[in-house]
Amino acid sequence: MPRFRIVHGHAPDECGASLASWQGFASPLRKNAALASCAAGQHQVWWDVEAPDAEQALALLPEFIRARTDVQRVEDLPVP
Predict the structure, then answer these.
(1) Under 8 Å between Cβ of 76 and 5
(2) Residues 6+ apart with CB under 8 A from 6
(3) For residue range 7-26, what is the model confidence (pLDDT) as tens digits?
């Protein structure tokens, strides 16, 4: 299954709305940790997910987050 890195960014005053947007939204990403830089002032969140395509990877997110998100297909790269 292809793997995607989801990168969500929001303004500092949108942190609360970002978290609230998950309420009532069914997703396997809920109730799991994500990497985030909000506490450091960067206001980005990252997830690595498996999905058939980028559109279905984005479908794992509520609309508020999806609208502020980039998705990239990724794979492991052996470093010599």
Answers:
(1) no
(2) 46, 47, 48, 49, 57, 58, 60, 61, 69, 70, 71
(3) 999 999 999 999 999 999 99
Q: Domain range spanning residue 67?
A: 3-74
State how far the Cα of 45 lies from the Cα of 64, in Å rounded to an integer.
13
Based on the structure, what is the number of domains in the chain? Answer: 1
For residue 15 the two structure tokens come to 């942190």
In-domain check, residue 23: yes
Structure-token pair, residue 44: 């980005």
Whole-structure pTM value = 0.88
